[in-house]
Design brief:
The chain is mainly α and 145 residues long. It is built from eight helices and no strands.
Length: 145
Protein backbone atom coordinates (compact mmCIF):
# COMPACT_ATOMS: atom_id res chain seq x y z
CA UNK A 1 0.00 0.00 0.00
CA UNK A 2 1.37 3.38 -0.90
CA UNK A 3 2.49 5.67 1.90
CA UNK A 4 0.62 8.58 0.30
CA UNK A 5 -2.67 6.62 0.60
CA UNK A 6 -1.85 5.74 4.20
CA UNK A 7 -1.14 9.43 4.87
CA UNK A 8 -4.42 10.36 3.15
CA UNK A 9 -6.29 8.01 5.52
CA UNK A 10 -4.55 9.58 8.54
CA UNK A 11 -5.65 13.04 7.38
CA UNK A 12 -9.19 11.78 6.77
CA UNK A 13 -9.41 10.41 10.33
CA UNK A 14 -8.50 13.87 11.63
CA UNK A 15 -10.80 15.68 9.21
CA UNK A 16 -13.77 13.37 9.92
CA UNK A 17 -13.14 13.71 13.63
CA UNK A 18 -13.30 17.49 13.27
CA UNK A 19 -16.46 17.23 11.15
CA UNK A 20 -18.13 14.88 13.65
CA UNK A 21 -17.23 17.10 16.63
CA UNK A 22 -17.87 20.56 15.15
CA UNK A 23 -20.37 20.06 12.34
CA UNK A 24 -18.30 22.43 10.17
CA UNK A 25 -18.80 22.09 6.43
CA UNK A 26 -16.59 19.62 4.60
CA UNK A 27 -15.38 22.37 2.30
CA UNK A 28 -14.27 24.56 5.23
CA UNK A 29 -12.42 21.68 6.88
CA UNK A 30 -10.75 20.69 3.61
CA UNK A 31 -9.65 24.31 2.99
CA UNK A 32 -8.25 24.48 6.51
CA UNK A 33 -6.27 21.27 5.94
CA UNK A 34 -4.92 22.69 2.66
CA UNK A 35 -3.97 26.02 4.23
CA UNK A 36 -2.24 24.35 7.17
CA UNK A 37 -0.42 22.03 4.74
CA UNK A 38 -1.82 18.98 6.53
CA UNK A 39 -2.26 17.21 3.19
CA UNK A 40 1.46 17.22 2.36
CA UNK A 41 2.58 13.72 1.45
CA UNK A 42 -0.98 12.52 0.97
CA UNK A 43 -2.68 11.28 -2.14
CA UNK A 44 -5.06 14.25 -2.27
CA UNK A 45 -7.54 12.60 -4.62
CA UNK A 46 -7.88 9.71 -2.18
CA UNK A 47 -8.25 12.11 0.75
CA UNK A 48 -11.09 13.86 -1.10
CA UNK A 49 -12.77 10.59 -2.10
CA UNK A 50 -12.84 9.33 1.49
CA UNK A 51 -13.53 12.66 3.17
CA UNK A 52 -16.49 13.46 0.94
CA UNK A 53 -17.56 9.85 0.34
CA UNK A 54 -18.00 8.87 4.00
CA UNK A 55 -20.47 11.70 4.84
CA UNK A 56 -22.29 11.12 1.53
CA UNK A 57 -22.73 7.42 2.38
CA UNK A 58 -23.15 8.00 6.13
CA UNK A 59 -26.65 6.52 6.52
CA UNK A 60 -25.66 3.35 4.68
CA UNK A 61 -22.34 3.04 6.54
CA UNK A 62 -23.94 3.56 9.95
CA UNK A 63 -26.73 1.08 9.14
CA UNK A 64 -24.07 -1.54 8.39
CA UNK A 65 -22.09 -0.65 11.52
CA UNK A 66 -25.23 -0.91 13.67
CA UNK A 67 -25.47 -4.60 12.78
CA UNK A 68 -22.10 -5.30 14.40
CA UNK A 69 -21.45 -2.78 17.17
CA UNK A 70 -22.41 -3.18 20.81
CA UNK A 71 -23.83 0.35 21.22
CA UNK A 72 -25.32 3.10 19.04
CA UNK A 73 -22.82 4.34 16.44
CA UNK A 74 -22.99 7.83 17.96
CA UNK A 75 -21.89 6.30 21.27
CA UNK A 76 -18.63 4.98 19.82
CA UNK A 77 -15.48 6.95 20.61
CA UNK A 78 -15.28 9.64 17.86
CA UNK A 79 -11.81 8.53 16.71
CA UNK A 80 -12.86 4.88 16.45
CA UNK A 81 -16.10 5.95 14.76
CA UNK A 82 -14.17 7.87 12.09
CA UNK A 83 -11.85 4.89 11.50
CA UNK A 84 -14.74 2.41 11.32
CA UNK A 85 -16.60 4.62 8.86
CA UNK A 86 -13.53 4.87 6.61
CA UNK A 87 -13.08 1.09 6.76
CA UNK A 88 -16.70 0.36 5.87
CA UNK A 89 -16.55 2.89 3.03
CA UNK A 90 -13.45 1.19 1.60
CA UNK A 91 -14.95 -2.30 1.97
CA UNK A 92 -18.04 -1.16 0.05
CA UNK A 93 -16.55 1.15 -2.59
CA UNK A 94 -13.02 -0.11 -3.18
CA UNK A 95 -13.48 -3.75 -4.26
CA UNK A 96 -10.06 -3.73 -5.95
CA UNK A 97 -8.47 -3.19 -2.55
CA UNK A 98 -8.06 -6.51 -0.70
CA UNK A 99 -10.15 -6.60 2.47
CA UNK A 100 -7.05 -7.52 4.48
CA UNK A 101 -5.42 -4.26 3.38
CA UNK A 102 -8.50 -2.30 4.48
CA UNK A 103 -8.44 -4.05 7.88
CA UNK A 104 -4.68 -3.59 8.36
CA UNK A 105 -4.86 0.09 7.50
CA UNK A 106 -7.76 0.59 9.94
CA UNK A 107 -5.91 -1.32 12.68
CA UNK A 108 -2.84 0.87 12.16
CA UNK A 109 -4.97 4.03 12.28
CA UNK A 110 -6.51 2.85 15.56
CA UNK A 111 -3.06 2.12 16.99
CA UNK A 112 -1.89 5.58 15.88
CA UNK A 113 -4.90 7.67 16.95
CA UNK A 114 -7.06 5.52 19.21
CA UNK A 115 -7.05 4.57 22.85
CA UNK A 116 -5.19 1.49 24.08
CA UNK A 117 -6.82 -1.62 22.67
CA UNK A 118 -9.05 0.26 20.24
CA UNK A 119 -7.33 -1.51 17.34
CA UNK A 120 -8.81 -4.82 18.57
CA UNK A 121 -12.30 -3.31 18.63
CA UNK A 122 -11.88 -1.82 15.13
CA UNK A 123 -10.48 -5.11 13.81
CA UNK A 124 -13.34 -7.13 15.29
CA UNK A 125 -16.05 -4.91 13.81
CA UNK A 126 -14.48 -4.50 10.36
CA UNK A 127 -13.72 -8.21 10.14
CA UNK A 128 -17.45 -8.93 10.63
CA UNK A 129 -18.38 -6.32 8.01
CA UNK A 130 -15.85 -7.87 5.59
CA UNK A 131 -17.27 -11.37 6.21
CA UNK A 132 -20.67 -10.05 5.14
CA UNK A 133 -19.70 -7.64 2.34
CA UNK A 134 -16.68 -9.42 0.84
CA UNK A 135 -17.85 -13.05 1.01
CA UNK A 136 -16.73 -13.91 -2.53
CA UNK A 137 -13.22 -12.52 -1.97
CA UNK A 138 -12.91 -14.30 1.40
CA UNK A 139 -14.08 -17.64 -0.08
CA UNK A 140 -11.61 -17.29 -2.97
CA UNK A 141 -8.77 -16.61 -0.52
CA UNK A 142 -9.63 -19.66 1.59
CA UNK A 143 -9.64 -21.93 -1.48
CA UNK A 144 -6.25 -20.59 -2.61
CA UNK A 145 -4.53 -21.80 0.56
Amino acid sequence: MSQSKTNARKAVVQALYQWQMTGQSLINIEQQFEEEERLKGTQKSYFRELFHGVPKELDNIDTILNEFVDRPVDGIDPVERAILRIGVYELLHRPEMPYRVVLNEAINLAKHFGADGSHRYVNGILDKVAQQKRTVEIKLRSTEK
